[in-house]
Amino acid sequence: MKSFIRLTDHKKEDLLKIFEIADTIGEYDGFLKGKTIVMFFPASSIRTRVSFEKGIYLLGGQSILFDPKTLDKKEEIKDVCGYLQNWADAVIVRYPDISMIDRMADAMSAPVINAMTDDNHPCEMMSDLYTLSGIREDYLGDKYLFVGGDGNIGRAWKEASDAFGFSLTQCGPDKYRIPGASFDASLESAIVGKDIVCTDSIPPSMLEDFKNYQVTKELMEMANDNAILNPCPPFYRGEEVSADVIDSDFFVGYEFKKNLLKVQQAIMIYVLS
Fold first, then answer.
1. Mean per-residue pLDDT for 194-212?
2. Which of 145, 8, 34, 10 has the alpha carbon at shortest distance from 87?
3. Which of 35, 38, 70, 108 could form a disulfide with 89 if both were Cys (CB 3.0 to 4.6 A apart)?
4. Cα dihedral across residues 46, 271, 156, 258: positive or negative
5. CA 153, CA 200: separation in Å to the nearest integer?
6. What is the DSSP letter of 192?
7. Tens of pLDDT along 223-255?
8. Nearest Cα to 48, choosing from 113, 135, 103, 3?
9. 63, β-bridge pairs
10. What is the DSSP letter of 42?
């Protein structure tokens, strides 16, 4: 059994194996029959929780849901997990502090899947890259641009670039640099030569700092031919992206996230195989 906490914990060929499982997901009918997956999700989670919960159901398993706040108790987490592993075949956790997920994985024989932390979002990155693999001829040879600050989505793209080996540049104000990432403070120059442009929503306290970093249709026309815009939902028209670029052919569309279902099913199969 192996947990899924950081993409860089796994070899590139193993991550690509997850894509192969996703390609043949129909062959795994009933894979979770008789298995129980315990999930910790806050009420605000929509896309990740729905796709995991439906994925468990379609594979024949049972899901039991808790609020992540139930992990914040006086009882030590290793003791909570010591009992939990008696009944859980795997645990899926969305929790701000990644060290909590590390401690849970260390305390359990059952695999733990990271459904998002303040440091990363590995399942989301796997889904995006899997979808790109189906629509881009050389998705790992493409040049990626992340426009945004040093948050979990930016760090997730940095983690993905390290794990898969693709080129990634961050663009934003200098004080929001992602540690270790290639960086360009000018959006006009950074977008030139890029194939995949990614964004993240901007916290209200940072909107003024990012007023010159809105991705527009005009800017996307400066990128490579056939470049695409992949904003991380929820996105906000008029903030990190303009309305006209979302309504243009540059936007990958709402169905881009459709593969989140089978990729997360593939991740569960991977960790339980």
1. 97
2. 34
3. 35
4. negative
5. 7
6. T
7. 999 999 999 999 999 999 999 999 999 999 999
8. 113
9. 37
10. -
